[in-house]
Design goal:
Largest sheet: none
Number of helices: 9
Order of helices and strands: HHHHHHHHH
Helix content: over 70%
Shape: elongated
Distance between the termini: 70 Å
Strand content: under 5%
Length: 209
């Protein structure tokens, strides 16, 4: 009987880990550059300097600035999906919503995260191809919120809402506004935000805080 040799995955694991680390290093550097100079203003040379890599080394991972932006968009999409999954979990609806928002605020406190969000918002307003990529993330969050709210209304967890889409937009605007406010108001701590946001969301949804 012929015994087929199994691939040795132990040898490739350190190499793949190193590649993942280098990729993350590039994306972190790109986020810093985009937050500082904008998507349009940041150059591949600037990203190379920030990442402390040669152009040849960077291009082995990403052939263009557009490829870097696409990778960041994919990471943001996965991060957003992970945060909003808190809306689907067990427990009272209001607790789930506030938990989701607080997780988002915590994420946005990472260095440069708010500045990058501001740049993404500007690109979305320009209706650019970059803005359209990130708008897809926003649409996916809205879809989950709508699904969660419709299910909650059906179960009697919250009263019926005449204009659900406008309500979702208002809640998103409040959460995004608070996140951006952290740029100019670093003393606006999560502990201070949580009880106020709870009352705000409960009021918008017609629920008891």
């Amino acid at each position: 009987m012929t015994v087929l040799a199994q691939p040795d995955t132990t040898a490739s694991a350190p190499r793949e880990a190193a590649q993942d680390a280098r990729r993350a290093q590039i994306l972190d550097a790109a986020r810093t550059c985009f937050a500082r100079s904008g998507f349009r203003g940041a150059s591949m040379q600037e990203i190379c300097l920030e990442a402390k890599m040669s152009p040849g080394g960077l291009y082995r991972y990403f052939p263009s600035k557009e490829a870097i932006i696409e990778a960041i968009a994919q990471d943001e999409r996965c991060g957003a999906a992970e945060i909003v999954q808190a809306m689907r979990g067990p427990g009272p609806l209001l607790d789930r919503l506030i938990g989701c928002a607080m997780g988002y605020f915590g994420y946005m406190r990472d260095p440069g995260a708010c500045e990058l969000m501001a740049e993404i918002s500007a690109e979305s307003l320009r209706n650019s191809e970059i803005g359209k990529r990130f708008a897809q993330i926003d649409d996916s969050v809205r879809d989950i919120m709508r699904e969660v709210f419709e299910e909650a209304i059906e179960k009697g967890e919250m009263p019926p809402i005449e204009d659900l889409d406008a309500t979702i937009s208002m809640l998103q605007a409040a959460v995004d506004g608070i996140a951006l406010r952290q740029i100019n108001d670093p003393d606006l701590s999560l502990a201070r935000v949580e009880p106020l946001l709870r009352r705000l969301v409960a009021g918008v949804l017609g629920m008891k805080a």
